């Protein structure tokens, strides 16, 4: 896995095998740090001409209201423009964090990309792997 960006509360990396950006959350990031982690993920997706993200929030925390608004107003569009078409989200172990993330996603309405939530890491990886676009041979 190729590292790209890291802070105390998050890591953004590229996984060649999955052809996916990997984002791992660790604890409570908010405001500029939270937004930077997500934007670095979008930047790496664009740089690698990727379309998939595996977001690991198992060790994540609740999302602040301002960050929820920022995701809806800024991030969804930026991620889509960067190439995002599929995101597999491995949900937090913390019930409070899981509820917060679920409320955030539900509050976004219809997304321009496909998102699935998983409680199991392997299921998330399998879903991303199985949904790789197939090249069509025409002729």
Key features?
single chain; 139 residues; alpha/beta; Transcription Regulator spoIIAA; six-stranded mixed β-sheet
In the sheet with the most strands, the strands line up as 1-2-3-4-5-6
What proportion strand? 25-35%
Do you know the CATH architecture?
Answer: 2-Layer Sandwich
Number of helices: 4
Distance N terminus to C terminus?
37 Å
Proportion in helices: 40-55%
The CATH superfamily is: STAS domain
Briefly note the structural class of the backbone.
Answer: alpha/beta
What is the CA-based Rg, rounded?
A: 14 Å
Polypeptide structure, described:
- By secondary structure, the protein is an alpha/beta fold.
- It has one domain (2-130): Transcription Regulator spoIIAA, CATH 3.30.750.
- It is built from four helices and six strands; from the N terminus they run βββαβαβαβα.
- β4 (52-60), α2 and β5 (86-90) form a beta-alpha-beta unit.
- α1 runs parallel beside α2 (65-81).
- The protein is globular, with a radius of gyration of 14 Å.
- The model has no long low-confidence stretch (mean pLDDT 92).
